[in-house]
Amino acid sequence: MSQRGLVIVPAFNEAASISEVLSGLRRAAPYLDRLVILDGSRDGTADVIRHMGETAVVLPCNVGYGHALQVGFQYALTRGYDVIVTFDADGQHRPEDVPRLLAAMADTGADVVIGSRFDRQRPYSGPLGRRFGQRLHSLITGNFAGERIYDTTSGLKAMRRRAVRLLASAPFLDLHVESVVRLKLQGLVVTEAAVDMGGRWSGRSMYSSFDAITYPVKVLLLSAIAVVDSLLHRGGK
pTM score, two decimals? Predict the structure, then answer.
């Protein structure tokens, strides 16, 4: 790989899985650097990272997934990385899918490739509330950005530098649906590549059952902000 690449792994209390995740990334994509964002972990995650000799940014408190990623984006931009991959620390992503996403990005010329569990051939699965949410989020991207993205909440993404630059300081709290909307409204190409994902190995998801009610509202508000922000950004060119 001629371009410099970085895998960003945000981690909040993932001591049970982070070692295997990073070992898998070392094996599957040894040509990529790795950066762990320690998002206020209190369970020994930092000790695991230190023992493995991995590079980490230590945040003094839990700032949340989106802001933790933005810290990683700023790190990548200031150090001149060309390609950035985001990868969850809970074990649900497969390290061997990282080269596949990079290959898809090279083959298609896309600015962002999302590792997708769903597409036209693979319908939404899981509890009814989650299926409804995924379908709603996909429709939001279609209506706001002109093209549906089926797996809008996937944390497995490969991005070019210009996409990262647009997201690094964006006024978002989530970096899922609304980030896709913003990127597409700015004229970037966002596509999906089929991957398989499992469940988290341990701990709790950052989404609760209550989020099944509140999250769609949050997505709509953030997507509206993304539209306004994109229009203002265009107007400032």
Answer: 0.82
